[in-house]
Structure formats: structure tokens, C-alpha cells
Amino acid sequence: MKALRYCSLAVVVAIVGFTQAQSAKKQLAGNDSAREKLIGAWHMAHIEAPGPDGKPSDIPQPKGMLIYTRDGHMSVQLMYPKSTNARSNEYVQDGYEASFGSYEVDEATHTLIHHVLGSVTRDLLVGKDLPRVFQFTGDGHLIIKSVRPDERWSVTWEHY
User: Fold this and answer.
1) DSSP secondary structure letter of residue 62
2) Is 4 exposed, middle or buried (0-12, 13-18, 19+ CB in 10 A)?
3) 30 and 145 Cβ atoms separated by less than 8 Å
4) 119 within 8 A of 126, measured Cβ to Cβ
């Protein structure tokens, strides 16, 4: 009878071990997905914004943070140096950019869409979908660009 109990216990332990090993393999495989790589907090490393002539412009670099959560939420904030605080556009109000909402990722096309629920520029962005192209560099940086032809900026982010 004892031998039967030990044998049953050994089978249960083997099944649990096998199940956990399979689960760990799936989690590791999932970590290679672009969506999983996006998850977390990023700080701005560099922004490029060509001038109207298409040539690189030397803009003062803002400070910035970008956050993607596992459950599909995002938030981005940029603060431009005081020397450019009068800067305002669709994204920036008095030198500050901030928006939040949800996001979707299309791994096949390396695009994501920010669905803006709130923004420092209020009605200029709220309710809009902002499509972006993204790529990861070999050293782990995230580069995001607009898909709009009139927006030629590029932002490079580093994980915290």
C-alpha cells in the first residue's frame, strides 16, 4: 500500500513538474514578442525632427518618459527645455507634451496605435488614434516614428 502511495505521489510530482516546465517555456517564448518588449517604462534618449527643408535640425533635447502596461495602457510625457517652452502644436502645450490612453500592437507590420483618452492639448488629440511605426535596435533601444508623411520625427527610447 505504501509503495502505491509513493508511486502515485511520484506521478503527481512528475506531472506538476512537466506542467510548470511547459508554462515556463511558453513564458520565455512570449518574452520574445515585440509586445512584451514594449512593456515597461522608457526614458527618452534622443529625438530627431528634421526642419521644413528635410535637413536635420538641432533642437534642444527634451526629457521624456513613455510607459506601456501589460494590460494595454500607455502614457507619454515630454518636457522641453525652458529655452523652447513657447513651443506648442498638436502634441505640445507651452513646452510640455503629455497624453495617455490605450494601445494596440501589430507585430507583423511593426506598428502600434495609441488611442488617446487624455492629453495636455485636450481636444486636439483626445479621441484620436495615433499610428506609429516601431523597431528595436540590437542594443535594446526602441525607435518610434509617426506614419504620417507630414511628421518626420523619430524618438529613441531606452528602458529604465
Assistant:
1) P
2) exposed
3) no
4) yes
Q: Return the pLDDT at 46.
A: 94
Cα separation, 122 vs 120, in Å, equals 5
Contact between 153 and 146 under an 8 Å Cβ cutoff? The reply is yes
Burial per residue of 31-40, b for 16 or more beta-carbon CB atoms within 10 angstroms, e otherwise: eeebbebbee
**CA dist 122 → 125, 131, 146 (Å):** 6, 18, 20
Mean pLDDT by 10 residues, the chain (160 residues): 58 53 47 90 92 75 96 96 70 90 96 97 94 96 93 93
d(CA 43, CA 51): 24
* pTM metric for this prediction: 0.75
